[in-house]
Amino acid sequence: MNILFLISSEGNGAGGHFNSLYQISMEVGRKHNVKVILLGKGKSPIVESSPHFDRKISVGHGLKDFQSLRGK
Question: pTM of the predicted model, to two decimals?
């Protein structure tokens, strides 16, 4: 099964949600094909250190910013 996790970051990306996503993606990734994409202007050293990390897409949180994802 293919599973895609999306998480957004505007800050340092080191809080509980990022740690939880890291652990969940590692466990699920044992049996499934997992990719993690980071959305936003911030970085997350936790998410970016995951072997399942695919890419970072720099977008804001406004509706127009998310509409721009259609072309990527």
Answer: 0.82
